[in-house]
User: Fold this.
Amino acid sequence: MSEELSLQEAADILDVHYMTAYRYVRLGLLHAAKSGGTWRVRREDLEAFRDGASSREPLNPEESKKKSAPWPERLELRLLAGDARGAWGVVEAALAAGAELDEIYTDVVSPALVSIGDKWSRGELEIYLEHRASAIVARIMGRLGPRFARRGRTRGAVLVGAPEGERHSLPVSMVADLIRQSGWEVYDLGADLPADSFAVAARHTVDLTAICVSVTSEGALTKAVDAINAVREVVHPSVQIYVGGRAVTSAEHAETLGADGWASSAGNLVALMNELPSRTPIDNSAEYFGDNRNVG
Assistant:
């Protein structure tokens, strides 16, 4: 078995104060895990930290401004350790180093979650670790979310959600915040939403410009088609329907699902949305649909 050191022993070896070593851990620079209420560091992790590039990076945010750093890996370590406070510390450090809000989602949080999910799918992690990490990320996003809102008149309304059977809600919330940052009024419908409820939401949304359907699991693709078909029946033809997520592999695939476009990534979806004109209010009710509506 690997030799384990206390954090104080690790600090002594590094010739730094205990609180400096603690900060290394909280920022994800030094891998450590709690055991019996105390931090324990494996000797090989300490040596890797001491000998590697991470130990030579400046920790003063002003000195490290715009400096590249392995933020996703650092965040992943804190998430897997169940260290909510440390995970937030990594996010704060990345922001202080010059990362933009959208980059925190696309270049830090998302890669960390994908890596954790991939490890779980390969049987390398217990499911509770993946769930615990997701819960920590949800709290982080709760703190960051209000910062994405823009003042002033919105460009139109957008619905974002995942179909019935799709239980991954974090990608939906990330996309909602990123679109909101571009000046849209975004309504996050969450995950596992039945097709008829999707349609009711679309039917009652004023100035609806686009609908974004997120599908991470292949098993939810059929329900995604149901959701797209349901909203088609109740929205104006000018409303664009986009689909994205790991289960949707190409623009051709998106077309077979009935969507108008494919969002290959969150950034691509934002770009597609930014190409849309601001919404001209359209009466989405009886004037267009007459008495043929059967939803809502």
